[in-house]
Structure formats: C-alpha cells, structure tokens
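Worked Example 4.2. Consider the chain below.
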Amino acid sequence: MLRELAEAAAPRLSTPDAELDSLLSGLPEAVRRGVRHLASPSRDTGVVAFRGILDAAELELPGTPLERNSRLLQGHWTDGLLLLVADSLGTLTGYVDEKDGILVHDVYPVRGEERRIENSGSVDFGLHTENVHHPLRPDYLGLLCLRQDRAGEGRLRVSSVRHALPLLDEHHIEELFKPNFYSFQPTSFARSAGFERPNTWHPVLFGDERRPGLRYNTHNTKAAGEAAISALAALAEALREVGREVEVGAGDLIVLDNHMVPHGRSAFTPRYDGGDRWLRRFYALRAISEQVTRLMPRPRVLPALEGAEAELMHRFDSWRRGF
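Applying the procedure from the previous section yields the following structure tokens:
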C-alpha cells in the first residue's frame, strides 16, 4: 500500500503540494501518528523513527554511487515516499544555492572528499542544525537509510536543546539569546560561489525562553566577545552530554525537528566498491510566505540568498520565529 502511494507520488516531485492531497490522505496511521507527534507544541522529543518503513529487500538498489551529484535514483519511488512524508509536515523544499535546488539529496561518501564536512565526507560530523546560516532554515529534516556501511561505523548522533538547557547557567542562556554569533555558509552552499564563504549574524537560541529553538553548527557557528564564547562552549558541552546515538538500518526513516534536535554522524571508512553507506535526505518547511513563493525559480525551491530576496526572507523568518 505505501509503495503504491509512493510510486504514484514520485512523478509529482516538483508539482505544487495541493495536488498531493488525495495521496496524503492514504498514508498509514503509523506515519500520521509520527507526524502529529512532531507537530505537537507539547512534545518532549523532536525525533521520530519509522522503523522498517520500507522493506530493504524491495528497494532494488544499484551500487552506491561513486561520483558526486549522481542522479542515479532520480524518479525512484523513494522520491515519492519522502515527498509524502515531507508534505505531511509542511512543504518539501530545496535551496537553489545548494545542489541547484534538488529536492531529495543522496548522502554517500565520495573518493577524495573524505574530510569535507558535508554529504560526501566520511570524517566525524559534529552536531548541527541544518542550514544554520539561512533565514528560512528547514523546520524538519528526514533521513531515509538505503544502505548502512558494512562495519556499522557511520552512526547517527542526535541531541536536544530542551534537554541541554537545564545544564546551562542562567547567564549563558541569556547570552545565547543575543545576536552575538555568526555562522558561515556550509560548504555545500559555497561550492560554486567562487569567493570567501559569507556569514550571517544571529542568536543561537530563539523564540520561547522556556522552550527555545536552536540555531547552531559545531563547525560553522562562531561567537564574538568573551561572554558569547563562554556561552557557546557551555552549550556545546551540554549538547554532547545529553546526546545519544540512534541506530539506523536499511529501510528506516528518521525525521527530526531541525529547531530542537541537532544531529551529526560518527566517522566511518568507505570502500568505494558499491556497498557504502547511502541515505536519502529531505527538508520540509511548515510555511512559506506568498511573497517568497513568487521569488522561487521553480516550485518548492527557495531563491538564491542575495539582495532584496534575502531581506524579504529575513523579515518573514523573524515573523515566523518571533525574534
């Protein structure tokens, strides 16, 4: 049943989301229940694991790609599955600045890029929320495991800002709400820029002081001033202390609240023989303003972050997040 829905949805990957209503209504109750949990403001965790949402034997996979930006699974029925889950949460979304706006990202190691802190690397990837530099960061992130590395070394790590908060001193929390921090564009955005990676100033905590959101990247977020540096270090330690590893096997889909749950990955050793670790990723936004929609180069893809477009997206983000 779920595969039939996914196969019907896959050709509609770039269509407006309203056209999917009839398919969305057919999703299994277990998926609906997980989506309701993530959308609930009273939830105490921002992680939902759909174990065995796909039968690994039915995936009919080719070997894990060896080249960067492979479109080996373009049009595959797993596109449809991720589209339906993303649109149950909001709207499946891409960024024209990242991978030319593709909507489903394939995550696998690439020879020669082992040390890159992005999809193609295999070194330790520290805790981060996705696209921390961007005014319209994803509200949700989904990771579908197609193939785990043979040694099981590449482990998903997650933490929680809500669990970390009680470990922080009051003055550190107060400092983290100030815009004394800046984040560089991730290298996945800056690959084709041809210039030094720009940065964005922002607070690390935002929204409700009792249940704040998080905007943080171990590798890209920096602090200005002694108080901010101390607060950021304390936060990093607290997130590590409350963090945990999540086992992800072939056919499992993990969906995260990108404002509550920073995630990362342990290092692993790729073999480049067609059997390496392979995940598929989606982003979803709960809401996109009509003004931003008009600027999109194609359905579901946010425009380049520059000029008037950036200012408009920043204003919409401030309204949406309340800071």
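The chain has a mean pLDDT of 90. The longest strand covers residues 140-147. Compare this with Example 4.1 before moving on.
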